[in-house]
Amino acid sequence: MACAARLFQVALASTTLLGVVGPVMAGELNGTAALSQPFPLPSDAVLDLQLIELVGAGDSTVLVGRTRTPVRSRAPFTFSVPYLDAAIRPDSRYSLRAGIRQANRLLFSTTAAMAVIPGRPAPVRVLLEPVGDAPLRGLPWLRAPAASVPTPLGAPRQEQQFRLDPLTRELTGSGDCNRFIGTYALQGENLRLEPAGGTRLDCEPAVNADEARFLADLLEVRRWRLDRQGRLELLDESGDVRLLMEARPL
User: Cys-Cys link to 142, which of 138, 161, 162, 184 (CB 3.0-4.6 A)?
Assistant: First the structure.
């Protein structure tokens, strides 16, 4: 009942803002959002922020402000969540929920409700944590340029790369000469890659040898981690780095 009454009050304030009843002041909650790990983000990623009022014991909530902003730069991201002054009560509690989404996939999120006080001039600082291994999926990962052999003059050459499809759990990619397809198993920091088949083009011997080493290294992968530059380190059973990959935003 309390939540329904509060929803009506917020709706009335919104009507007022539209000029049906009379003018009111609109406020903004400003701040920055940072990533706890330097994951690259897809080009269609969106920063979603919601200003929530906690009603009663906090079991019910009322949305009083929201903004969805395309991510166009590197973290930290600046944001501004608009709200209606008429919808804010000094005796209520408010929290900010934040996340980064790609379509229906939640990539990063706040791990706990963040208490905020609308109207305070100090900017809010939000730290976003990866939602499991979600940020690893969907992006093409390319082998770091210094890791592969030079391309012989005139030889066809593709980039050594792979992609983990978040929906089909399919592994796709390419070596220096051929494309491949397979499956993967990803749970937390544990990762197994299983290239199963692909094209059978014949390239220069040095290119063929480099491609064979790349595919063999993929089969040895057991874990993953990010370095300080956001590059993907693929580790074998002994904990040695077998491959160093860089993300290419879609």
Answer: 161
Of 226, 233, 102, the residue nearest 167 (C-alpha):
102
Give the pLDDT confidence of 142-192 residue by residue, as tens digits.
Answer: 998 744 455 544 444 678 999 999 888 899 999 988 999 999 999 889 999
In 74-189, which ranges are E strands? 77-84, 93-102, 105-109, 114-116, 124-130, 140-143, 161-164, 170-174, 179-187
Chain position carrying tokens 């919104």: 14
CATH number of this structure's domain 26-130: 2.60.40.2990
pTM: 0.71
Per-residue pLDDT tens over the stretch 67-115: 999 998 788 999 999 988 887 888 888 999 999 998 888 999 998 878 8
